[in-house]
């Protein structure tokens, strides 16, 4: 039976959450920081006490903080009704930083279902959340994500947008390659996403996968690191936001290749591949 399409507009209860130096380091390690820089090990993201190095936070960590908020509060997904969680995969993800992300902080946020689309054999549920500083009330960041739930469509609703992304017909301005570890999902899940799809072979099989797959947001974080270093000169204060669509799963241990095209003074487009297989598509980035 299809999920409840009338859940659009449902809101979760506000929740407060915080992060600290260890949280920032753990996220950085979870998305591969320190693995590919033998001279510096990205020490500004992976340590807090290196001489002459000030710790910084990776901008894409906001997607983990948003998830942390949803897990603490009474989220709006209950309004959807019941569905098989093994049939849920991440569809799209975006974030916008209203100010640079700090290494430590505390915020308040709540999530809202902004759209539900009927894809026939699946449903797409879109959620948005904006976090504000609990001390100043300033907006910190906004995140938006869509969930693709197989087997939950078919009620005759709006299919939603379907514009196809076309990469520029020229060589990329930057190509960044990162190797993931075979235990990458086991490290990344320590950031809070304990979905057994990424750790339990039996649960992964229920979702139709031969082996546990990498978190989509881990692939997203690897891609964000590539954008940070290639486009922003490794300066997180220049990173404003990124968005895109998950195209196919990544298996821990596979190598990622991020192709980046600079469009103008503050916009880039990108795609992420495993060999010739597209795994993250329709990527857009804004920067200062």
TrEMBL record:
<dbReference type="InterPro" id="IPR002539">
    <property type="entry name" value="MaoC-like_dom"/>
</dbReference>
<dbReference type="InterPro" id="IPR054357">
    <property type="entry name" value="MFE-2_N"/>
</dbReference>
<dbReference type="GO" id="GO:0044594">
    <property type="term" value="F:17-beta-hydroxysteroid dehydrogenase (NAD+) activity"/>
</dbReference>
<feature type="domain" description="Peroxisomal multifunctional enzyme type 2-like N-terminal">
    <location>
        <begin position="17"/>
        <end position="151"/>
    </location>
</feature>
<feature type="domain" description="MaoC-like">
    <location>
        <begin position="167"/>
        <end position="272"/>
    </location>
</feature>
<dbReference type="GO" id="GO:0006635">
    <property type="term" value="P:fatty acid beta-oxidation"/>
</dbReference>
<dbReference type="InterPro" id="IPR029069">
    <property type="entry name" value="HotDog_dom_sf"/>
</dbReference>
<dbReference type="Pfam" id="PF22622">
    <property type="entry name" value="MFE-2_hydrat-2_N"/>
</dbReference>
<dbReference type="GO" id="GO:0003857">
    <property type="term" value="F:(3S)-3-hydroxyacyl-CoA dehydrogenase (NAD+) activity"/>
</dbReference>
<protein>
    <submittedName>
        <fullName>Unannotated protein</fullName>
    </submittedName>
</protein>
<dbReference type="Pfam" id="PF01575">
    <property type="entry name" value="MaoC_dehydratas"/>
</dbReference>
<dbReference type="GO" id="GO:0004300">
    <property type="term" value="F:enoyl-CoA hydratase activity"/>
</dbReference>
